[in-house]
Amino acid sequence: MFHSGTHKVKETAMKAMVYHGDGKASWDDVPDAVLVDPTDAVVRVDAVTICGTDLHILRGHVPTVDRGRILGHEAVGTVTAIGSGVRQLAVGDRVLISCISSCGSCRYCRRTSYGQCSGGGGWILGNRIDGTQAEFVRVPFADNSTHRVPDGVSDENMITLADLLPTGYEVGAINGRVRPADTVVVVGAGPIGLAAIMTSQLFSPSRIVAIDLADSRLDAARKFGADIVINPDRLDPVAAIADLTGGLGVDAAMEAVGTAATFELAVQLVRPGGHVANIGVHGGPATLHLEDIWIRNLTITTGLVDTYSTPTLVDLVAAHRLDTSALVTHRYPLDEFERAYHEFSNAGETGALKVLLTQN
Ligand SMILES: [Zn+2]
Ligand SMILES: [Zn+2]
To answer: Which ranges carry the Enoyl reductase (ER) domain (predicted)?
Structure first.
């Protein structure tokens, strides 16, 4: 079903960030991205970023990623070639490449659950096929897996809509059922936590609480809309949330780290009848304390983003109702990808949220 990615039909002709296993990836010469199926497009990558998930791949947490794979599942670019089956795109169009590809016709895609696509899509870019951290990328199912960039919207504003914002919105705010006047807690104020904080505000909660061990991330959380911040090194989050909510707990708790401890904390912080939305990517098991929570009528959700909300988010950005540009903290030319990875993976010191790499 899946194509093997790099098709060695041409001589080496472009550069890309290639995964080599054992924590290593490098900016290598690779064969050109080319059309394979009629529904493919080839897109010149104008702007691309690195996701926390890429760091999970480097740590060996994502076994579907083979050595030799070009990484990356987020980009904004310009269409340079289209297959004979592509109807909605033309060469020269500026497009956002979604982290999720959609065949458009399987039972999941027909219910807008694109993340679970069983027709060869889902999260395939930079995972099962070559990704976007390259000069050019082959985009399968191009009509259903890209979004036209509205005039006047910059690559920088668009790039976080490839993955980060839809994930925070769908898997965080929507799965967490945030409603007007709710109290929301977001455990983890990295980029995903910030996206959950930003998009929760679309539902007018009374207050948003951010919890993180890094003060720099708590400062960012305030900037992106958190009303209250808690550093567990100085303040017990369970006691602080109990104080804040009259002993009840929050309406919605979002887990945005991907560790057992932060998931278990999110479950502890929610009120009876409340929602726990897990957003984090977990590499190991966590304990569900059913002995405590069976009586509390909790709803716990998990999710890979489907990106059904991307058109909504594109409209909000184009209408200046959502300002995503401040998420981009570091900028590099494409050929400094290795440095960008280094600085992104040391976010504690560098303060990196999203790093943007651009090709001129
Ligand atoms: Zn991602
Ligand atoms: Zn599908």
So the answer is: 21-357
What is the distance in A from the centroid of ligand 2 to the CA of 118?
A: 5
User: What's the whole-model pTM score?
Assistant: 0.93
Ligand closest in space to the Cα of 120: 2
For the chain, what is the domain count?
A: 2
pLDDT band at 11 (very low <50, low <70, confident <90, very high): low
Question: Where does 22-131 have alpha helices with state H?
Answer: 52-58
At 47 the pLDDT is 98
The arithmetic mean of pLDDT across residues 63-88, rounded, is 97
Task: Answer for the pair 60, 27: CB distance below 8 angstroms, yes or no.
Answer: no
CA of 333 to the centre of ligand 1 (A): 20
Distance in angstroms (rounded) separating the CA atoms of residues 20 and 69? 8
Segments forming the whole domain that contains residue 319: 12-163+307-358
For the segment 38-43, the average pLDDT, to the nearest whole number, is 98
Q: 170-179, 260-269, 278-287, 294-303: which range is least confident on average?
A: 278-287
User: Looking at the CA of 192, which ligand is closest?
Assistant: 1
Which ligand number lies closest to the CA of residue 48? 1
Using the mean position of ligand 2's atoms as its centre, give its distance from the Cα of residue 67 in Å. 26
- Angstrom CA distances, 242 to 29, 57, 157, stand at 55, 37, 37
Is residue 248, in this structure, part of any structural domain at all?
Answer: yes
Q: Residue 260 C-alpha to ligand 1 middle, in angstroms?
A: 20
